[in-house]
């Protein structure tokens, strides 16, 4: 990923400042919002990367899109603009979130489902995460219709597969190895 080394340095400095000001959680929330918004908007990403668009316009666009930013986050955006690094804002935000999660012992749980999760299912998944790891985790959702139903939960190197596709494959394997069924 382009600019990862520089983004890590910026994120580390922002996290250090946020900790000093007791605003690390607020900045974390801002950075998550920034990361998701830029990832979901090709136009915003292109605007930030464009050398033709003036920095003042980029700043006003960012402040209009993200209205309730913490002062530390606003100053970080200003610094990135000043140093001609605003194009890596999304990478800085991702790096900040990763560093914050490591500092606060928050793991990322990736859940794959056939349909988008509703609030109640999200609670069930988070309870399963707590049961498996004994710790809190942030939840990232992936929708994959090929698992048919159920879910696949990954936390670090731990995987819990409760998908219908896996159960069907297991059943298929057992029937294939069954001496009575194979004679039919």
Automatic annotation (TrEMBL):
It is found in: Cell membrane; Membrane. The lineage of its organism: Bacteria, Pseudomonadati, Bacteroidota, Flavobacteriia, Flavobacteriales. It comes from Christiangramia antarctica. Keywords: ATP synthesis, Cell membrane, CF(1), Hydrogen ion transport, Ion transport, Membrane, Transport. It is a peripheral membrane protein. It holds the Pfam family OSCP. This protein is part of the stalk that links CF(0) to CF(1). It either transmits conformational changes from CF(0) to CF(1) or is implicated in proton conduction. This is ATP synthase subunit delta. Belongs to the ATPase delta chain family. InterPro entries: ATP_synth_OSCP/delta_N_sf (IPR026015), ATPase_OSCP/dsu (IPR000711).
């Amino acid at each position: 990923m382009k600019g990862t080394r520089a983004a890590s340095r910026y994120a580390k400095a922002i996290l250090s400042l946020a900790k000093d000001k007791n605003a690390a959680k607020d900045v974390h929330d801002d950075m998550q919002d920034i990361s998701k918004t830029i990832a979901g908007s090709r136009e915003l990403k292109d605007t930030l990367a464009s050398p033709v668009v003036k920095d003042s316009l980029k700043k006003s666009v960012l402040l209009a899109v993200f209205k309730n930013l913490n002062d530390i986050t606003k100053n970080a955006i200003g610094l990135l603009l000043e140093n001609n690094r605003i194009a890596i804002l999304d990478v800085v935000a991702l790096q900040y979130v990763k560093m914050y999660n490591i500092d606060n012992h928050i793991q990322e749980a990736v859940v794959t489902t056939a349909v988008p999760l509703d609030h109640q299912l999200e609670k069930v998944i988070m309870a399963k995460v707590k049961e498996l790891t004994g710790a809190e985790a942030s939840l990232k959702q992936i929708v994959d219709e090929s698992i048919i139903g159920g879910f696949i939960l990954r936390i670090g190197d731990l995987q819990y597969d409760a998908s219908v596709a896996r159960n069907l494959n297991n059943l298929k394997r057992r029937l294939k190895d069954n001496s009575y069924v194979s004679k039919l």
